[in-house]
Amino acid sequence: MRVLARIIRHFRSNSRRKGGNYGVCLVGRRHLVRREMSYTLQAIYNAPTDRFSSSSFFISRALSTDVEQIGEENGERGGPLVEYERRIAAGELMDGDLCQLGTLRELQRLYDELVEKSIECRLDRYAASEKAGRSRWLWSRFLPQSSYSPVKGLYLYGGVGTGKTMLMDLFYDQLPCTWRKKRIHFHDFMLNVHKGLQKHRGVSDPLEVVAGEISDEAILLCLDEFMVTDVADALILNRLFNQLFNDGVVLVSTSNRAPDNLYEGGLQRELFLPFIAAVKERCVVREIGSSVDYRKMMSGEQGFYFNGLDLSGVLKATFQKLVGEHNACPQEVEVVMGRKLKVPMGANGCAYFHFEELCDRPLGAADYFGLFKKFHTLALDGIPIFGLHNRTAAYRFVTLIDVMYENKARLLCTAEGSPFELFERIVTVSDAKQIAPRTSSRSRKNDDLDLCVDNELGFAKDRTISRLTEINSKEYQEQHAAILAAKQLEQGVSA
C-alpha cells in the first residue's frame, strides 16, 4: 500500500508540473479541478456567452497569432499564452475577453524574459547558492551589495472576478519545478513575516534576516490579493521589499487596487509611499480593465446561504447532516506562536460558530488559516448587516472570506440579508459624496446614522460579495466535493 501511495503522489506531482492536472475556467476566479477524477465544469462551459459572441473570433484569432509568433521566435518554448491556447483548442477553456488577452501577453513577456535570463536571476535552486538567511545577513554587514534582478516583475490590478488570480496561477504553473519560486496569499505571506520576526528577535536587524530567508527560498515571489490595511504591515513592507529587491527578488502580484491607492488614508501613510515607488520601479503595472465579474456568470445559488436570522434551526440541522454519525464537540486549533483557537462544535471536518465568536473577537488571518487547516467546512450563524456600529467585525468577516476562498472551504451560514445587502451601508468616500445633500425637503432625520464611510472596506466589500456569490454556486460546491473526495482517497491509500 505504501508503494501504491508513492506512485499516486508521484503521478499527481508530475501532472501538476505538466499543467495537465487542472482544467482552468476563465468564467470563474480560479476554478482548478482535478482531471484525473473526470471532473469538468460542464455547467460553466455550457453557460450563455452571448455578450462575448461577437468578439470571440477576434480574440481567438489574436491568440493564435501571438502563439505563432512565440513559436517562430522561441521554437518549442511554452508559457501561459501557449498553454492558454492549447487549453482552448482542447476544449478545456472558453475564450476570455480582450482585457485578459492583454494581460496574458504581459505574463508571456515576463515568462520569456525569466527563461532567457534564468541564470542571471539565480532561479534554479540547484545551481543557486545555498546560503542561509542568517549567513547572508552576517556577510552583508561586511560586504554590502545590491543585485537587482535584470527582469521586472508584474503588478496586476483590477475589479473583482476579472480573472487576476487565475491568470497568475496559469503563469505560475508553467514555470520549471526546479526554480526558486513561491505562490502565496498576501495574508499568509505577512503572517510568515511576523513569525520570522518573532523567531529572530534576538539579532540587531531581524527584518533583514527574514528578507534573506525569503529570497533564499524564492527569487520569484507571487503574491495574491495584495491589500494593506494594518499600520504594522505598512511600516514593515517598505524596508522588507527594499531588501528583497536588493536580493534580486522578482515580484508578481494581484490586487483590487492600483499601487498609488494602496493603504489610502492609512496612519503614517507617508512612510509607506517609498514602497509604492519601489513597486512601480521594479514591476510593470498592468490593469485588467474588464468590467465583467465572471463569478456572477455562474449558475444560480446551490449552496447553504440561508437568508434570515430565524433559520438557525435549519443551519444546525444541515450541519448535523454533514457531521453524520460523528459526535460534534468543542475542539481547539493550533494557530501561531503557541496560540490556540477554541471551536465551539466540530466533527468530521466541519466547524460550527456563532458570528460573534469568529468576528466580534480580536481574531485575525492567522486564526482563520489555522481553522481551515483542520476544517474544510464552516457553519456560521448570524451574519449581520454591516455598518458604522460593527465596522471592525466587517473587516474580520472580509478577512475570513478571503482565507476561506483561498483554502477552497465550504460555507454554511444564516445572514440578515443577501451578500449585497450585508454591505449596503459600507461606502467609499467617493460614494458618500454622491449621496444627496440635505435640503429643505431632506432633513437630518433622513440620514443613515449607521452609514460607514471607509475606503479600504468600501473596496474590499465588492470582492467579498463576489466571493460569497461564487462560494454559494453549484460549480464551487461541486469543486469542493471533488477536492474533498481526492483528499479522502489519498488519505485512504496512504493508510
Characterization of this structure:
- The structure is a single chain.
- Helix 7 packs across helix 10 (206-217), helix 9 (186-199) packs across helix 10 (206-217) and helix 11 (231-246) runs parallel beside helix 12.
- This protein is α/β, with parallel strands linked by helices and 495 residues long.
- The longest helix has 21 residues, at 474-494.
- The strands form 4 sheets. Strands 8-13-12-11-10-9 form a 6-stranded mixed beta sheet. Strands 4-5-6-3-7 form a 5-stranded parallel beta sheet. It has a two-stranded antiparallel sheet with strand order 1-2.
- The radius of gyration is 24 Å and the shape is globular.
- 47% of the residues lie in helices and 15% in strands.
- The protein has 20 helices and 15 strands.
For this entry, give a set of tags:
alpha/beta, 495 residues, five-stranded parallel β-sheet
Beta-strand percentage?
Answer: 15-25%
Report the biggest beta sheet as strand number plus sense, adding barrel if it closes: 6 strands, mixed
The coarse overall form would be globular
Helix content: 40-55%
Q: How many separate helices? A: 20
Structural class computed from helices and strand pairing: alpha/beta
Parts with pLDDT < 50 across at least 5 consecutive residues = 6-62, 71-75, 128-133
Spatially, the strands of the biggest sheet line up as 8-13-12-11-10-9
Number of distinct beta strands: 15
Alpha-carbon distance between the two ends: 8 Å
Rg of Cα set: 24 Å
For this structure, the quaternary state is single chain
What is the overall pLDDT average? 79
